[in-house]
Design goal:
The structure is a single chain. It is globular and about 40 Å long. The strands form four sheets. A six-stranded mixed sheet has the order 6-7-8-9-10-11. Strands 2-5-4 form a three-stranded antiparallel sheet. The protein is built from four helices and 13 strands. Helix content is about 25%, strand content about 35%.
């Protein structure tokens, strides 16, 4: 049985009106700290989920204002605005995928079933047209790294997407000017990883294109 997340909200910092105003002006906001709750894993095993893994699941389940994202960063969850350049890269990737193969469809920031206790919303997900939006049907997931999502994109989502059996996971890092492709998931880990300059064409889901 998959681990079931039970959260005891004892001291959660709900977004105040002032914090929401801060979000609208483009600043980040810590939503919950590690001291805010206690979580437990699968009751049959009695094994607690690690604190950080709990935060990853809680962040995925949060209802944040439109245009913002929630990421687990260390022992806090940070809500931050999605910058225009970040969104432009996401849109460009989705466009290039569909242009390369008309039989493919993409989603952007849409929650996909089968990606953990709370469904995750990859920046871009690739499916064959007509397939249900479930990790078992996905051809690839993409994440575009932002300052608040470095740990989540490189570590947490690599684990989660491998556990979900997503065949390929591409991380696009504009700050480092690189892309990193994970492939061949097995036993909850990607077995192959390749990192190249962002100017290098990448082959994902049997199509090749430039970022």
């Amino acid at each position: 049985m998959a681990a079931s997340l039970a959260v005891e909200w004892s001291r959660v910092q709900i977004l105040s009106a002032r914090q929401r105003a801060g979000l609208r002006t483009g600043s980040s906001c810590i939503y919950a700290t590690a001291a805010s709750y206690h979580g437990y894993g699968d009751g049959e095993r009695g094994a607690p989920m690690s604190l950080h893994h709990q935060l990853v699941e809680v962040a995925a389940g949060m209802d944040v204002p439109e245009g913002f994202r929630a990421d687990a960063k260390g022992d806090v969850i940070v809500v931050s605005p999605q910058r225009p350049e970040h969104w432009n890269i996401i849109q460009e990737i989705a466009f290039r995928v569909r242009l390369a193969d008309a039989e493919l469809s993409t989603t952007s920031d849409v929650k996909i079933a089968g990606t953990g206790e709370n469904d995750k919303a990859p920046d871009v997900a690739i499916f064959r047209k007509g397939e249900a939006l479930h990790a078992r049907n996905a051809l690839a997931f993409f994440e575009v790294v932002s300052p608040s999502s470095i740990e989540a994109d490189y570590i947490d989502k690599a684990r989660l997407y491998a556990e979900a059996g997503v065949p390929e996971y591409l991380i696009v890092d504009p700050a480092r000017e690189t892309w990193t492709l994970h492939s061949s998931p097995s036993d909850g880990e990607y077995q192959l990883t390749s990192t190249k300059p962002i100017s290098t064409p990448v082959r994902v889901a049997d199509i090749e294109f430039e970022l």
